Amino acid sequence: MTLNDDYAPLCDADLVRLAVRDDHAFEALVTRHAAAVHRLAAVNVGPGAADDVVQDVFIAVHRGLGGFRGDAQFGTWLHRITLNACYRALKARQDIPFDDTPEPAAPHDPAHAGEQADLRGRLAQALQTLPREQREAVSLRELSGLDYAEIAEVTGVELGTVKSRINRGRAALREWLSRAGVRP
């Protein structure tokens, strides 16, 4: 049994309250949410820069826990911090092209892993072509699994606007991927 197992049954709200003074509770929050934060960062800044963004996110979370009032769910707050960190990272590297280098292939099936890495790279490129608002809404829905109401809360826009952005973003992605030769 690990230390994180002691915190596993706790909900995010309880962990946040404990994490203000307990580094182990904060570690449990990081363990619980790091993969989702990394996925969201990778699609917004590229896989090569995602690790740095994740680190920035959890530093910001740690610093801001004392001021987190709980008006929104912790996950909503975390997604907003993640998106803000992504935009800061993108702004800081405006002169550097998007890193779409495929991840190394898994040793068990190099051909399949290479195809998957190529597809992920193309999808990341396609997402980068979307306007910021559409990319944000689509990535929160498809990668983070948030429902429309949660996305509206994270982005601060009306529910209908979220639905419209996702619909337009998906259509633009389909068109871009189709032109790139990717078939469903």
From TrEMBL:
Keyword Transcription regulation recorded: yes
Protein name in the entry: RNA polymerase sigma factor
Gene3D superfamilies, sorted: 1.10.1740.10, Winged helix-like DNA-binding domain superfamily/Winged helix DNA-binding domain
Domain RNA polymerase sigma-70 region: 29-94
Pfam families from the UniProt entry: Sigma70_r2, Sigma70_r4_2
Keywords, ordered alphabetically: DNA-binding, Sigma factor, Transcription, Transcription regulation
InterPro entries to which the protein is assigned, alphabetical: RNA_pol_sigma-70-like, RNA_pol_sigma-70_dom, RNA_pol_sigma70_r2, RNA_pol_sigma70_r4_t2, RNA_pol_sigma_r2, RNA_pol_sigma_r3/r4-like, WH-like_DNA-bd_sf
UniProt similarity note: Belongs to the sigma-70 factor family. ECF subfamily.
Domain RNA polymerase sigma factor 70 region 4 type residues, every copy: 121-173
